[in-house]
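User: What would this chain look like folded?
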Amino acid sequence: MALNASEYNDIAFRRGRSKLLDSYHAIPTGTNVRLAKKTSNLFRKRAEVSSPGLDVSDLNGVISVDPVKQTAQVAGMCTYEDLVARTLLYGLVPLVVPQLKTITLGGAVTGLGIESSSFRSGLPHESVLEMEILTGAGEVVIARPDNEYRDLFFGFPNSYGTLGYCVRLEIALEKVPRFVELRHVRVHGTRELRDLMAQIATDREYLGERVDYLDGVVFSADEGYLVLGRQSDDPGPVSDYTNHRIFYRSIQHDSPEPKRDRLTISDYLWRWDTDWFWCSRAFGAQNPKVRRFWPKKYLRSSFYWKLIGYDQRWDIGDKLNARKGLPASERVVQDIEVPIEAAVDFIDWFLEQVPIEPIWLCPLKLTEPSPIGTDAVQPWSLYPLERGKFYVNVGFWSGVPVTPGQPGYTNRRIEQKVSELGGHKSLYSESFYSAEEFAELYGGSTYDALKAKYDPERRLLGLYEKAVKHA
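Assistant: Here's the prediction, encoded as structure tokens.
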């Protein structure tokens, strides 16, 4: 019988860790070790396997919350939905809460995550104080920035389960009030948007009002918005975008003055989940006639994931396109980061070359001073962002007509443009790099050394095999 969030504790966690280790030792020698996990937040194909996997079914809760130290002990497969529900009981949340409820804490660390607090709090792995990791060699080690496993601590982010899996994490939390006051600021060009974003990210205020959260949406070259959030305990009415109303449509307006709105802190954190940003329109869920009868409990990313799974399994979308005389689609589902000074070049190029809109923007900067006490300019080995520098994450999630005879044509052009501008892309979706390009961008010899040390028999797949070869 599954435990609910409030019943999960250290005893349940230790039982889950034992099941994990037992399942590791039950996998035959010479067989690749994988998670026995049915759900995923990845958008890349994976080879079908029939061998047993790691049992992580009981590593799914919050072990404890310390409201004085403002920290939490969390099992690796705990979702952010469950984590936030628990920490909000103490008026606390993680410093960065990724947008989708079913993302796990371990997944956000090994695969990266981002959100509108990233301009001040960096990425989720930066608020990790300690990680308990099952390595490819079958050892459980505790990695901290100041112990003998510090190389694994700094090399684990962006390793996607190729060095090991998170069993437990200790993370820092921050105090939050009950509400978020929103201002939607209209801009009329990409350069104006970039300059204003850079100014607000640096000053952390706009027109004399503090800014605690910052992201943006570009609908076209001359219609963009910055969404500014300020934490607040002021009482008052709040909006609800969990049913018929759609959040991303609410930000649009023509006024030179910011459009204001208010949400509870919980609804703010999950404002994108109800419609998976704007991707629910692909399923008809934004059609008022359809939405009227769409059960509220299925207006969430976890249900859309199931629909995506059916499409990937049976090529439903391509078959429907074929009936209409349309070409098959190349899936273009990516998040990329470029230095903020290169953001206009990338966005303008993208809007001109790739028929996808809207696109999401989120500024980020590694935290200063570092919460884990490192002065390294590029502390995270496999995703080398430079400390002291602002970047912009650009997210786009849709499809374009395939280019005959050139698989991944549009994705490959995007990769080349991002590299040309000194950026990186996240590896949760399909990638088309050569082995040499990939090594240069994602750790190279540093990754090879970590792999040799923590997975000497290569029980886990390699990062290039996973990210590019779909192994």
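Residues 10-26 form the longest helix (17 residues). If you want, I can go into more detail on any region.
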